[in-house]
Automatic annotation (TrEMBL), chains A, B:
It catalyses: Release of any N-terminal amino acid, including proline, that is linked to proline, even from a dipeptide or tripeptide. It comes from Labrus bergylta. Residues 49-146 form the Creatinase N-terminal domain. The lineage of its organism: Eukaryota, Metazoa, Chordata, Craniata, Vertebrata. Its main location: cytoplasm. Its cofactor is Mn(2+). Metalloaminopeptidase that catalyzes the removal of a penultimate prolyl residue from the N-termini of peptides, such as Arg-Pro-Pro. Contributes to the degradation of bradykinin. Pfam families: Creatinase_N, Creatinase_N_2, Peptidase_M24, Peptidase_M24_C. InterPro entries: Creatin/AminoP/Spt16_N, Creatinase/aminopeptidase-like, Creatinase_N, Pept_M24, Pept_M24B, Peptidase_M24_C, X-Pro_aminopeptidase_P. It comes from the Eukaryota. This is Xaa-Pro aminopeptidase 1. Residues 557-610 form the Peptidase M24 C-terminal domain. GO terms for cellular component: cytoplasm.
Length: 611, 611
């Protein structure tokens, strides 16, 4: 992987920073966050501004350019990748290490007195703006909103914003009509005396209207905003997308009778002026709900007296708690996904000895097997297919220049998932097709013990996910090992593979209690830089459980694994383990039904009960 | 326990709330926090205002009185006790339960529009003032500072503020002179460009000057403030206390040469005007460090531009990390303490069958045995000596009207500790002198498993205590059980038995990473209301450890138990346990040396190795 050459781009950007056409005074520093105007984690090509300026294409990172310096902050998953993708113009800021300054502290240390720090107010979240602005102001600087995005100014061949076809989802999949979702939302609004709710997160809008798009690779969402009042629904979207009669019928756009369930459609860009008009037409008693993490631009349209910011929206929480139809869909999706992966592993076992399988061809083969399954839509994220040392790059994505051949001598880690119309999958398996070393087996077994400790945990209702994180690490810690990422994230149902507001992490920010029906991943790992990576990931469903006692009638919860792909027994130090191999019987049945014989034989052999 | 009759007191308080002598307008609600002007947890009798007004005498709780209502918030440790000590005029607000409103939400729900809520600014912390004020203002009310304390107005026979004799501690005990502590503090101040530091916490001031007092029962502290500049040290204390020549010598008060180590003494009450004068004499570049939790009154003396609030002070952190002399002292104190408790348990075993031992007489006997040990000063907190159902009252203190007789039929829980000149102890043991029930044994064993899981945990440097809390609960959770308190608190060295900034709790607030040399308690429990209570508590020292690997050179930590009192084997379901009984050999030696034969025999019998 060779780094992006950024000298000329930085020169142009610094020139734009001094150009009073964009801001009334020269700007001393310019912040380039990684998100889009919806604070999406995965973004469309037109929004990959941070990648454009520095070369690093991971999912999380913030670049800051000053007259003298260019620095990029990212977390432990990406330290190796970022250092390989950025040239010498850039300093990598390793977040989470004690010696790494925060963006604010760094800016204060390098800026001349009374500096202006610019940022595009549409791609910085309101809460981030607030914190950054406060820190800069207290040091005598100021954070300023630059309306024209300065990256776009220097990005000559920037792609268009996508506008793909929309797909409607029926009740079989969603379990709840969009009208019922609106009614439930309005009930929450009434409870808190809220008059308007502004939805800016793309997955929340897709979930609310039971629609899916393909505007962002891997995420079945579409660019839109929605504003919901007690008697009005406004949807902001490229109007050309609304011509399909089935779609118009789904949204009841042509219904002659107007009611509080009538959707008024507006062009995507008009959200700013419409929200302004709504706020102007109402008194300060009309409170508007908007997420803390919505864009600063849109948040600041709402006068402070009207604004009722929330750390996560009622849609975010409602979406996280899956209903019976969604759970059923997720289960079906995971069965199909397990069939595809069993086929992959049987194929790998046969092909690897020939020396012709690479990280890229293995990933392609995984996609091919998945695509043969019913209602396959696409991948849920770029497949991490990594051999040996590449496995230690936590969010590695194989590229032609890094592509390694699978062999009988190295550990193979594949973290992959798909979007099916009925659900989203995300699974990681770590395999060895020859003989793993004692150290590799030892590490694998610690990771597995952590994985099982979380999956098998019983905990009271109301417990937040961060209280389970250490269970995943205890076996590693005992041997002096650890991993620098969280243990689990929420998973959408035919939606984003990462979603809030719950998860399992040592970070406690915006962590809502786990509830029955929530779906999260359980994915501890261990990474030996320059040598190998191990991660074991299942998607698990939070379910009620009834242990022997019921203290203060609080009730208890545990997890049910949805992922049914077997683990490789030869990677385990079996004396350390007691394991219930639930996956065997379920997947065998499905493989048999589908007549996939080789994969069935592989599965039977791989999942011999541990004696 | 009969509740305090509060009708007449509330009438007088409400009368004072309307009296414009105390505030220019009538006050609609008055808040009575539990602390003193130093935000101490344990307080002197003159500061027990919340107890005076509502009757509840636990260590944590806030009372709020309005025209119509009187409500008192406390946490799970005190639900039973508070409900027994308060009469029908009071509503108990159970903190931590979902249905319990916060103080702010409750006030907003009961107050008429545009209300004034009063509080004494000396006994509310600055951060609490800020939060409360913000919430009330956003609902149209206001929080106002009432300079005269309205409880004192109606408290005719309020005791005097104590002014006990001060004790100096030499280097053998402290390991560091107060001059070296001042130098270290100034180095921290220089690092952060701070010109003045205001110390308001009594234990921090006692630690800084290597002095101890006895102004507050159980806590060897004295009423004082200190303000430290780069060239000046000001100590605010009742000047009558400074006549002792040894004390004057320790503080070098009569040294003829003036230097940056000269202490200037001022009357206790003059801290407000002196701090005002300091702030007036300096520019806005002179930053003043003061803890977020210092009193609102003193914090607001410092103009906002000068103020640099911190969640905990550098003294708090320095005090928490014990040096070699302090660790040695703590170890010696715990050996003496274990000798006293072995004597107690041997005595109890002999006396209980006679039916003459009560909770109070057992507590007295424990104190008697402790007082025979060298350098005993007093107890470190009121002994919790509780039989059967009283054990379920988490911070129970036996009173004549609740006093229960120890018998062969009920569980006995004793949580007690002492102040020795060389260290502070805090230990809980749960015993049965007859035959425990299967359920009692089961619960004891889960609690023990949690206790051991924490004590034996290995974790990376930089880990915060809250990440270990779930280890203490996992065995209980698995059976549907739990306890409604944290797992551990910091312990001072001949100082407060509860101290920050570290601990082990599901609460993540102001939780600093554990460091080698810190000392915390490890005390999971289980409480069966109306039946019994179980708690197992050791004080443990954070020590470095070297597991097999050392991931990213971070280093690992674990705990060394300082408490050496054995656990009762008959309370255990031994098949569930593997335990290293370290305490046996150390304490046997000490009992033998001291010629305490009966206790030695008891210890030998009780700590038979588990087969």
């Amino acid at each position: 992987m060779s780094p992006k050459i950024t000298g000329e781009l930085l020169r142009l950007l610094r020139h734009a920073m001094k150009n009073c056409k964009y801001f009334s005074e020269p700007i001393n520093a310019y912040i380039v966050p990684s998100g889009d105007a919806h604070q999406s984690e995965y973004i469309a090509p037109c929004d990959c501004r941070r990648e454009f300026i520095c070369g690093f294409n991971g999912s999380a990172g913030t670049a800051i350019v000053t007259e003298q310096h260019a620095a990029m902050w990212t977390d432990g998953r990406y330290f190796l990748q970022a250092s390989q993708q950025m040239d010498n113009n850039w300093t990598l800021m390793k977040m989470g290490l004690k010696e790494t300054p925060s963006q604010e502290d760094w800016l204060i240390s390098v800026l001349p007195e009374n500096s202006k720090v610019g940022v595009d107010p549409w791609i910085i979240a309101a809460d981030q703006w607030k914190n950054m602005s406060k820190a800069l102001t207290s040091a005598g600087h100021s954070l300023v909103a630059v309306q024209d995005n300065l990256i776009d100014v220097v990005w000559i061949d920037r792609p268009e914003r996508p506008s793909t076809q929309l797909r409607t989802l029926g009740l079989d999949y969603t379990g709840m009509s969009w009208q019922d979702k609106i009614t439930a939302l309005r009930a929450k609004m009434a409870e808190r005396k809220i008059t308007w709710f502004v939805a800016t997160a793309l997955d929340e809008i897709a979930w609310l209207f039971n629609l899916r798009g393909a505007d962002i690779e891997y995420n079945p969402v579409f660019f839109a905003y929605a504003i919901v009042g007690m008697n009005a629904i406004r949807l902001f979207v490229d109007l050309k997308r609304l011509s399909d009669p089935a779609l118009r019928d789904h949204l009841q756009l042509d219904s002659p009778s107007k009611s509080e369930m009538s959707i008024h459609t507006f062009p995507y860009e008009s959200v700013y002026t419409e929200l302004q008009a709504i706020c102007a037409a109402h008194g300060p008693k009309d409170k508007v709900w908007i997420c803390d993490r919505a864009s600063c631009a849109l948040t600041q349209v709402i006068p402070k007296a009207h604004r009722s910011p929330i750390p996560y929206t009622p849609l975010c929480l409602a979406k996280a708690v899956k209903n019976a139809s969604e759970i059923q869909g997720m289960k079906m999706a995971h069965i199909k996904d397990a069939v595809a992966l069993c086929e992959l592993f049987a194929w790998l076992e046969k092909e690897i000895p020939k020396g012709t399988v690479t990280e890229i061809s293995a990933a392609d083969k995984a996609e091919e097997f998945r695509s043969q399954q019913k209602e396959f839509v696409g991948l849920s994220f770029p497949t991490i297919s990594s051999v040996g040392p590449n496995g230690a790059i936590i969010h590695y994505r194989p590229l032609p220049e890094t592509n390694r051949t699978l062999s009988l001598n190295e550990v193979y880690l594949i973290d992959s998932g798909a979007q099916y119309v009925d659900g989203t999958t995300d699974v990681t398996r770590t395999m060895h097709f020859g003989t793993p070393s004692a150290f590799e087996k030892e590490c694998f077994t610690y990771v597995l013990k952590g994985h099982i400790a979380v999956s098998a945990a019983v905990f009271p209702n109301g417990t937040k996910g961060h209280l389970l994180d250490s269970f995943a690490r205890a076996a590693l810690w005992e041997s002096g090992l650890d991993y620098l990422h969280g243990t689990g994230h929420g998973v959408g149902c035919f939606l984003n593979v990462h979603e809030g507001p719950c998860g399992i992490s040592y970070k406690t920010f915006a962590d809502e209690p786990l509830e029955s029906g929530m779906i999260v991943s359980d994915e501890p790992g261990y990474y030996e830089d320059g040598s190998f990576g191990i991660r074991i990931e299942n998607v698990v469903l939070v379910i009620p459980t009834k242990p022997k006692y019921n203290y203060r009638n609080r009730g208890s919860l545990t997890f049910e694994p949805l992922t049914l792909v077997p683990l490789q027994v030869k990677m385990m130090n079996t004396e350390l383990l007691t394991q219930k191999e639930k996956c065997r019987e379920v997947i065998c049945g499905e493989l048999e039904r589908q007549g996939r014989k080789e994969a069935l034989e592989w599965l039977l052999r791989e999942t011999q009960p541990i004696v």
